[in-house]
Give the backbone structure.
Amino acid sequence: MKSICVIPARYSSTRLPGKPLKDICGKPMICRVYERAKAAKSVAEVFVATDDERILQAVEKNFGKAIMTRADHKTGTDRLAEVAEKFSDVEVIVNVQGDEPLIEPALIDELVAEFVKDKNLQMATVATELSDADEMKNPNNVKVVLDKNNDALYFSRSLIPYPRNAGKAKVFKHIGIYAYRRNFLLNYAKMEPTPLEQSESLEQLRALENGFKIRVIKSSCRFVGVDTEEDLKLVNEIYRGEKI
């Protein structure tokens, strides 16, 4: 089963303009993400998908592979689907966000392995347990509740499950790393936005509202996505202090 990893990257960012090219210990962030993804054993190729020549040049200067995509895509999924159309021999496509320079390569392998084990699986993602009360209440932390098979029941910016009886259920934070069966991805990108998706501003709800399952891998990996200058400073400190 052939799998590839695609890292969508736009230059513009509301909170951190030019985010993909921000420096992390001497290299642009997008190149750090690429290096981490490239270390995964289960993917045949890794590509950055961008609509900006500056990002393309930065990736290629650091010996990576990048693909130019259209500038009118509304979502990263649309950009991913454009790349998927070019690879008819690929069965699984892993989508790693361009602002996750601490992505664990083994986690990519775990996602791909789910598709090997379950031939009917169409989509998978990742979650990690939350314990801090403030993080649970933060609407920027998307929460997910699971069934007994670790398939997602619902994603929300609200605290779910509601702790009417404290301690009865764990709270999981959704991590925006996805894997798709290629044919599903192409169809998924063509689906119309759905009411819950629009209400929560969470694109993955489109799959649930259309009756598709999303498998969720539970992970204890450290996730420090870069959205602010403070995040960028923290990631630089981690890179300087650890072997990554």
Q: What stands out?
A: The chain has nine helices and eleven strands. Residues 135 and 141 are 7 Å apart (CA to CA). The chain has a mean pLDDT of 94.
